[in-house]
User: Which sequence fits this backbone?
């Protein structure tokens, strides 16, 4: 290219080339040691914003997964309680059917009445089920037990629903307002036809020996309440299924986002290692060449 | 008709003097082989004025010219002024992008992205804490969840404060650096300009005396090279050995003859290091200020969106990156706007802000800084290669080649020996004339 080549030229070119070579080596070294091809935003600005977005999504997915497992705990607790109630209502129905066929003496009826009373207490106990210190059948009044023990059947919980965020803008209600099933008994004077009212009527009909009423009104009411209970169990079960589906979906998304994030920011180790040794070889060669070129001159070959 | 007897001695003497001058110049070149800014010099040799011998020819009576040897006309320096212009233009551009690249790299390093310590991760933790609160608005984990929200919020606010503080520091450091370089008196610009003005004076005097002050001109070129890294310069030859130097976008020439006009105002259009510092640190239009504004808008979006979902008392106070702080306490955080203990609709909505406007604009901000750094360091690398290439060409013209100098040394040494031999021969001739002819 140029006619004259001078000593300073050779040395400054050699230094510039060595620096470039070392700079490349340094970048590859950083990629090798961190395992990432994006070590600062300037390595790949678009990739960086992708990486930030993806890790944000992963963090959200992690939250959703936590929410799903928390929600599942609520619905499982609800399923257990409702299934216990289911058993108890069936036991009450047996007692009512036996009492209504006219073979029981009044003392048998009294014994049945006292068993039903105890079952009422147990049902209310089940309705007061809680998870992590929060009453699950109380609507949003999770700090208030839905029912107090004793003869007061008034529902004390709230309306409203407690929900869990299981996806972007997707919430699932995990609380149940048990008052639509159990009602408020006979506290307000006349009954509301819900389960507690029906059970209290059964107790009083047993105590008064009113077997006709037991066999007709009470049994019919009990059956209709029982079908409400089954409906509620089905609803809770459906929520549990929905949460499980969400959990599977979240896991799939976590897998795909994790691999997408890895594609964006992780270095291909095999490729990087090969690059590293290539660049190292080039650098060593440049060093050796530099050391031998710069030192020789005409001076070495002139006599004295 | 006849040739004066001692003419040959004078001719041989001129040959000796010329060879000696050439050897001395070679020595000077070799001594300065590694002096920065040195241009190699060469002795300009021409034939000396011939002697007219009238009627030398006995037959025709025509006159002839007899050569009288060599004379050293000048010791000149070998330099290409066009390469100087190219070098200085490229030097300004490279120094500009290198300054930007250095400072922007510091800005980028301060962000600490993408790592687990960056703001993006802390924002994610903040949104997660609202999810935890939505899961436990009352009950046994509630206190911990509320405390978690406060702590995550405080971390986010503190990081925004620290980032803004870092940017402010970088802004004022760049401004400080600009002040130091342009200070009057004693700033680098002024000190270079003063030296150039003095050299103008000395060079002009020497040239008037008919001497070419090569080494002074090298010094002046070296100073001009240095000035070109600070800002764009244009150098005009004033004809009397002096140069006029226009500096950056300053209104009047920095140096004109022996006058220095400094201090003057420069803007980001000045180019070079000073232009870069101005374009980065300008408190109104500078790049760092733009970053601070972007960070302010992240803080504002965060505060506004969260506060709008906390109707009773705002969660964040302050709406800029520098002032944002958590004003809520564990007791005042609302998971719900209703009085129900288990309501969590507000917490759910805030948790749903994850990946929203604040996160997006922060990610965009980080990517923006990244691409600014990338383009600055790319243009720095390109500029550096160009500069090395142009400098190589300059070295090729002006640099000292030891091989060449050694060859010259031998050439002129032999010339000296030969001239001495001529003198010896003439001496012998005269000896013949004086001692042999006399008796």
Assistant:
């Amino acid at each position: 290219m140029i006619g004259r080549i001078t000593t300073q030229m050779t040395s400054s070119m050699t230094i510039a080339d060595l620096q470039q070579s070392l700079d490349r080596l340094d970048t590859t070294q950083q990629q090798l040691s961190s395992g990432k091809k994006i070590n600062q935003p300037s390595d790949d600005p678009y990739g960086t914003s992708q990486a930030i977005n993806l890790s944000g999504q992963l963090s959200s997915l992690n939250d959703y997964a936590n929410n799903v497992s928390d929600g599942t705990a609520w619905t499982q607790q609800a399923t257990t309680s409702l299934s216990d109630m289911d058993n108890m209502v069936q036991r009450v129905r047996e007692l009512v059917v036996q009492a209504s066929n006219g073979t029981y003496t009044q003392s048998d009826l009294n014994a049945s009445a006292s068993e039903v009373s105890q079952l009422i207490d147990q049902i209310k106990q089940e309705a007061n089920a809680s998870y992590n210190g929060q009453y699950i059948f109380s609507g949003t009044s999770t700090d208030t037990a839905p029912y107090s023990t004793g003869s007061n059947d008034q529902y004390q919980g709230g309306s409203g629903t407690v929900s869990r965020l299981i996806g972007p803008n997707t919430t699932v209600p995990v609380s149940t307002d048990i008052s639509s099933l159990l009602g408020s008994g006979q506290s307000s004077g006349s009954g509301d036809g819900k389960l507690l009212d029906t059970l209290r009527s059964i107790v009083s009909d047993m105590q008064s020996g009113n077997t006709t009423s037991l066999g007709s009104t009470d049994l019919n009411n009990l059956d209709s309440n029982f079908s409400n209970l089954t409906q509620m169990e089905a609803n809770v079960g459906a929520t549990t299924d929905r949460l499980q589906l969400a959990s599977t979906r979240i896991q799939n998304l976590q897998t795909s986002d994790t691999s997408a994030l890895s594609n964006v920011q992780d270095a291909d180790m095999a490729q990087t290692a090969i690059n590293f040794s290539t660049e190292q070889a080039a650098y060593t060669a440049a060093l050796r060449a530099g050391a031998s070129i710069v030192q020789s001159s005409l001076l070495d070959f002139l006599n004295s | 008709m006849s040739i004066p007897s001692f003419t040959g001695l004078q001719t041989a003497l001129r040959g000796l003097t010329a060879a000696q001058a050439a050897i001395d110049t070679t020595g000077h070149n070799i001594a300065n082989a590694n002096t920065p800014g040195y241009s190699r010099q060469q002795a300009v040799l021409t034939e000396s004025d011939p002697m007219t011998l009238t009627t030398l020819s006995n037959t025709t009576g025509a006159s002839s010219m007899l050569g009288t040897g060599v004379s050293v006309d000048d010791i000149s320096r070998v330099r290409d002024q066009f390469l100087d212009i190219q070098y200085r233009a490229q030097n300004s551009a490279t120094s500009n992008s290198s300054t930007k690249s250095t400072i922007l790299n510091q800005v980028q390093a301060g962000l600490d992205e993408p790592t687990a310590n960056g703001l993006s991760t802390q924002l994610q933790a903040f949104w997660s804490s609202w999810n935890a609160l939505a899961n436990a608005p009352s009950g046994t984990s509630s206190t911990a969840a509320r405390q978690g929200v406060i702590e995550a919020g405080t971390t986010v606010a503190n990081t925004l404060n620290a980032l803004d503080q870092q940017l402010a520091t970088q802004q004022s450091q760049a401004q400080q650096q600009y002040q130091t370089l342009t200070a009057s008196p004693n700033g680098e610009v002024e000190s270079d300009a003063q030296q150039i003005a003095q050299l103008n004076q000395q060079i002009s005097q020497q040239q008037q005396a008919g001497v070419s002050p090569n080494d002074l001109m090298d010094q002046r070129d070296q100073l001009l090279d240095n000035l070109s890294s600070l800002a764009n310069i244009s150098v005009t030859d004033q004809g009397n050995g002096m140069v006029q130097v226009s500096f950056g976008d300053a209104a009047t020439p920095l140096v004109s003859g022996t006058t220095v006009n400094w201090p003057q105002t420069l803007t980001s259009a000045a180019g070079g290091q000073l232009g870069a510092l101005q374009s980065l640190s300008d408190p109104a239009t500078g790049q760092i200020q733009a970053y601070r504004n972007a960070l302010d808008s992240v803080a504002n979006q965060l505060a506004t969106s969260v506060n709008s979902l906390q109707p009773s008392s705002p969660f964040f106070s302050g709406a800029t990156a520098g002032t944002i702080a958590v004003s809520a306490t564990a007791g005042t955080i609302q998971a719900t706007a209703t009085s129900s203990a288990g309501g969590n609709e507000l917490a759910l909505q805030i948790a749903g802000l994850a990946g929203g406007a604040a996160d997006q604009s922060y990610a965009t901000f980080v990517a923006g800084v990244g691409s600014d750094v990338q383009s600055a360091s790319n243009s720095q690398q390109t500029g550096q290669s160009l500069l090395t290439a142009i400098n190589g060409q300059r070295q090729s013209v002006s640099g000292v080649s030891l091989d060449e100098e050694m060859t010259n040394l031998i050439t002129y040494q032999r010339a000296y020996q030969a001239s001495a031999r001529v003198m010896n021969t003439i001496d012998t001739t005269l000896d013949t004339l004086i001692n042999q002819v006399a008796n």
Summary: Residues 149 and 405 of chain B are 78 Å apart (CA to CA). The mean pLDDT of chain B is 90.
